Amino acid sequence: MKFTKMSLVTALLLGSSAFAIENTKVSGDAKLFYDTVDKNKNSLFDKAGASGQAAASLSISTDLMKGVSAGTKVTALSTLGLEHQLVNNVWEGTNGITDSYIVNDLWVAATAGKTTTKIGRMELDTPLVFTEKWSIVENTFEAAVVINQNIPGTTIVGAYVGGSNGQFVGATPGTADTNASTVGSANVVQGIKNESTFNQFYKGAYAIGAINNSWKPLTAQAWYFGATNVTTAYWLEADLDMEGVLLGAQYTGIGEINGVTTKSSDAFAVMAGYEMKDTFTAKVSYSQTGKDAGAGFNLAGSGKSKFYTEAWWNYGKVTQADTTAYNVTVEAPITDILDLGLYYTNADHNAENSAGDLQEITLSATRTFGSLDTSFVFSNITLGADDNYDQIQVYLTLNY
Questions:
Q1: Please, which residues have CB within 8 angstroms of residue 117's CB and are 6 or more apart in sequence?
Q2: How far is CA 327 from CA 165, 311, 392, in A?
Q3: Residue 26, pLDDT above cutoff 90
Q4: CA 233 to centroid of chain Cα atoms
Q5: Strands (DSSP E) found in the chain
Q6: Could you tell me which residue, 191 or 51, shows the higher pLDDT?
Q7: Which member of 38, 114, 241, 265 has the greatest number of CB atoms within 10 A?
């Protein structure tokens, strides 16, 4: 399960002489991302409608002693001087022009028997509080996590989250922090003013979950979330993967969120698909939100959700109030040449909110050249009745 993964992370521990450090792993990547849209009277490749940024990360994880490990990760961000020449926007950052850096992860983990405890800055992957990987640098959390596997076929998870570098971490839960930009998942980064990278996550939040895989083709999970003095939520999900047949069902509910909505809501999603190994994977999915779902279903606040129907790029549309959404996903590798993807999302809101209806068609082509991952993505996006535009994105990632 992704939530239990101890991410390989960054930078300071090799200098310590207090421990006999063994099993040390060093990794990282260098990224260059570019995005352009022909929207708001801009043509493709106009700097006014383009975003570009570079990032370099370094990760270190190590065993400090038997049963105790630690890790850290640092990411540096730069425009490479592209601002106001080729692009006017960046993926992450406080003001869009200065170089900046972020300490993504800094954690210690201890394992005793079948129980692991992890504390510090880290990635999380739960249905309603999770690290997002779509941007040039991921959002992370300051948290304490306990994972137990004493029950056969079952993983029990308990987590307390106290801080986040995500964009919606302001004094009023669910509202945008004044230091955050409008793009990015971890856009409160440390720059020349040395502002704090992490802010309070509500007034503290906790998650309790159980994931059962006793029958190998089926993974079932149940989660309960609470944000102190703000809201409660739950998530139920079951996914079947048996001889290429893929089936899934999700049901979630979220209570009143103070400062955002005074109404609770729920939503469900279903998915069916088929996977032929090394040939193709095809899935279709459907979701429906309640009439009072305006708060969305991501307590970290960026708008992206874990629903099967979530769009490739325009997050938050499938989780708006009284929304019916469909998604078709087809992915196919072409021998060792390319990995191709086709993604279609349609989100229909109620009549009062029809201006925000979404139709998104995305084509992606990905190829790896040794340690270099390359992706080219083209999207055609329609918002409402009149707003139609094209989008091109290029991703280059050098892994080391």
A1: 109, 110, 111, 144, 145, 146, 147
A2: 30, 8, 20
A3: yes
A4: 19
A5: 22-37, 50-65, 68-78, 100-112, 115-122, 141-148, 154-164, 199-212, 218-227, 231-242, 245-254, 265-276, 280-289, 324-334, 338-348, 358-369, 372-383, 387-399
A6: 51
A7: 265
